[in-house]
Amino acid sequence: MTYIFRSEYLPIILVTLVGFGLLAAALLIPVYRFMEREQEVSKQWTPEELARRAREQQAADDSPNGTAHDASDAPSPTPNQP
């Protein structure tokens, strides 16, 4: 009588499958976490969010108590470095 696989190979097969699963998790979980963080950051750059920030900035510039941005607030240009 022949078997599809011999019983002495069963522990090796199980260890290989578990090891492969652990390796896949070890490699894919950081990628998943990175993609989730990037997804959250990308929400700050939607057209709606950009429009909201522009409105807030405009309201801050128009208010008498807001901080007005003029040329003195701009960063000074850096000289070209060789």
Structural commentary:
With 82 residues, the protein is an all-alpha fold. It has a domain of 33 residues. Helix content is 60%, strand content 0%. The protein is built from 2 helices and no strands.
CA(first)-CA(last) distance: 80 Å
- Helix and strand composition category: mainly alpha
Query: What Rg is obtained from the alpha carbons, in whole angstroms?
Result: 29 Å
How much β-strand is present in the residues? under 5%
Let me know the largest β-sheet: none
Number of DSSP strands? 0
What is the chain-wise order of helices and strands?
A: HH
Helix share bin = 55-70%
- Averaged pLDDT, please? 82
How would the blueprint of this fold be written?
Blueprint: H1 10-42, H2 47-62
Give a short synopsis of this structure.
The protein is 60% helix and 0% strand.
Name some characteristics of this structure:
82 residues; mainly alpha; 2 helices; 0% strand; rod-shaped
